[in-house]
Specification:
With 127 residues, the chain is α+β, with helices and mostly antiparallel strands. Helix content is 26%, strand content 33%. Strand 3 and strand 4 form a beta hairpin. InterPro entries: Dimeric_a/b-barrel, YCII.
Length: 127
Amino acid sequence: MKYLALVYYDEKLMEHKSQQEWDALNRECIACVEDLSSSGHYITGSPLLPTSSATTVRVRDNRVTVTDGPFAETKEQLAGFYMLEARDLNEAIALAGKIPPARYGSVEVRPARELMDTDNEAGGNAG
């Protein structure tokens, strides 16, 4: 089953890291992806640029509105994601625990669902 691991941390705290600390964390993330790939658990993923580069799009009454920045102010910001293949939620949690930025924030683990032409359960509660 596929699980999305959403990586969150406080961007303000991360901005205070030295270049050496930041580079070391990124090397850890690269090594984590290599390990997850070699074990067959890694599907895809990507770090994200800071929320200052975000744009939020909404459609209401057939009108598109665009706002600079993220949708909501939060203590931790979405920093990236890993799409994982795992037997079950317990294995997905164990894999998410190996993601290095979890030390600085959190990793939200959510099962992914297949989008079908018909028979999708209302609200996306299939699983």
